[in-house]
Amino acid sequence: MSDDYYGHDEDHPSPWGPHDWDHGAPHNSWFPVIMAIGIGIFLLMFARVFSFGEYDFSYLPMVFVGLAVVAAAMIVWWRQDMSFDGTYEPRSSGAPFKSIQIRKVGTWVFLMSEMMIFTALFSTYMRYRFGIPRCDTVFESGDWVEGTAVTCFEPASHLIASSWWHIAPGATNTFALIISSFTIVQALRWAHKPEGSVDEEVRRKRIYRYLGATWCLAALFLTLKMIEWFIGFHVPEIGFLGLQEHEIPSLYSEGYLINNDHYQHHDYIDETGAHMMANIRVSATMFYVTTGTHGFHVLGGLVGLTYLTYKAWTGAYTPQSAVSIEYFGLYWHFVDLIWVLVFPFFYLY
Questions:
Q1: Which of 151, 137, 215, 225 lies closest to 179 in space, CA to CA?
Q2: 269 Rama sector, left if φ>0, alpha if ψ -120 to 50, beta otherwise
Q3: Where are the domains of the chain?
Q4: Tell me, what DSSP letter sits at residue 212?
Q5: Residues 268-280: pLDDT tens digits?
Q6: What is the pLDDT of residue 161?
Q7: Taking the model in full, what pTM does it have?
Q8: Which parts of the chain are beta strand (E)?
């Protein structure tokens, strides 16, 4: 095959970018594939470092190797994309996606594969939720012996929904993601405004500010997630509101862990003072895997927003190149929709 087939010619002299898009798309970027390989290395090695409370740090160097591969591939990929000005947006020529932008088709195919992942997680959760006796049901039945752990399902909502303060981080995150869907749409709206209808400097500022606001909301989501899981928070005394000073413990400090087979909750003490112990490995694993997978998608969106915000700050987005924000917006709305399902299933029910 000729060099032109891969995009190596006088208009696209280097696979490292930037490219001259006036002469078509450069079909020579392997860096998305390399980035995917890096993510695979990272996830595989990270899973080997942490396994049900056992730590094997011999795999830690490979974790950083995976991260380095991801970072290097992402930087090159972004450098290639920086020159994209909307001049050439390749479209599909065959059925059933004829005349539809190839990147949009790819985005929808990717989102469909993501739907299968979360469908599997939700269905597994429901299978265990209804297939394993609930811990409160086991406790009330009296079918347990003190000092012997009983395998039962303890939903995280038993802790999280126990008070308004416990549920505050999750509820705040719900509003944060809903608002972020609005801000990403506003960024696209300003990018789509016809040339001449708005001052270009105003366009630039509005786009990067709305994208920056989306970035901040995504960062808030992850911060509150860490507070909920690992840190907890302090509620000060506010007399005129009738609030007493107290601590809201994290799930970690409450012992809600994937390796806890001797979990004890203050509700599981009978009138004689006997304390029921529960093996909650399955229920805790389902909670952390599902919400963690969603959190990983938010983290990926945060990384993407970093690039989009920077590119918007340079004034690179115009009505012609606004499609990049549109494609990211599809992904971000999907992340928002998944959380709207995760929140009631895992935090309220």
A1: 215
A2: beta
A3: 1-84, 89-348
A4: H
A5: 888 888 899 999 9
A6: 84
A7: 0.86
A8: 50-51, 54-55, 150-151, 233-235, 246-248, 278-279
